[in-house]
Design brief:
two-stranded antiparallel ribbon; alpha/beta; 372 residues; 8-stranded mixed β-sheet; 16 strands; single chain; 14 helices
Amino acid sequence: MPESEVYFTDLRVKPPHNLLTKLERLIKRAGIEKIDFDRKLVAIKIHFGEPGNLAYIRPNYASVIVKFLKARGAVPFLTDCNTLYYGRRSNAPAHIDAAFENGFNPLATCCPVIIADGIRGTEFREIPINSELCESAKIGSAIADADVIISMTHFKGHELTGFGGVLKNLGMGCASVGGKLFLHSGSSPRIFEKNCTGCRVCEKYCAYDAIRVGPDRIAHIDYEKCVGCGQCVAVCQYDASRVVWASTSEIACKRISEYSMAVVKDKPAFHISFIMNVSPDCDCWDSNDYPLVPDIGIAASFDPVALDHACAEMVMAAPALPGSKIRDSHNHEDMKGKDKFRAAHPDTFWKAGLEHGEKSGLGNMSYKLVIV
């Protein structure tokens, strides 16, 4: 298979240009105008950020894409699906409020926000893919019904998949709540009792009433109720709640790549990744840690696998920032050329998703980086 082209621009600017004009130049050079947008419903898949988190993509970038699409006759909308875990984005009204609070509102972005899987996350289309791990995928109906998919991804670390890139944005992000249950299944956490302080924060954030602190002041998980969403792992400040990964990160990455196939099946799709504020964890949490590496740039491609691989390799080639999570935990080494994602989350296997995506025909790991 020939190399896929990934287009990249750094964050340096010279007047009269700025990062917004550089973004438009990038997507044009990457060939976005090959897509027929005239009178097409275009789903712009983006993560609006959990309020309190400040690492998400700025809405200014989304506005550039919206105006570009409208100038070509498109009918765009910004979209995401509801979350599986407790938070400000677990139902559509709250999700829209959170999006508006973070600047993704019609006044700023010139288009509506539509939560793709409805009020409670139950509106989806079941798309047959007959792949190795998934016979079909439950994709939010507004995304499944769109004519064109544009993904705008904040490239960062992730506690389940190593990093959150295009495949995570598409596969997990476009899944309805039922789809997310499937993608997370098999990754239920356990309590490392020695570390538990009985603070009850995990109780507060569990959407399924599956974890309770007992008379022994230790948290206990009811596995009949637990769906394996990992929220208790994310909010525990004492490393007491831990995911029993085994091979589940690898399986989750593969499932996510198959769900990504369902999202882009039989329709044009174009992908943009913002390699900036590369925080260790997902934008789903209501805070963000110090970035792992300096800001790198923006990349775009028709190939989601190649784009993820290129972004991962650029982050690995960069030095770790002093004071970051991985720099502190690795004897202050600069980690240049090393796998920052495995350093932040040692039990993750991000490459499995890319290899599986290539094997499944979603994209190509081999790429040619074109500098814009």
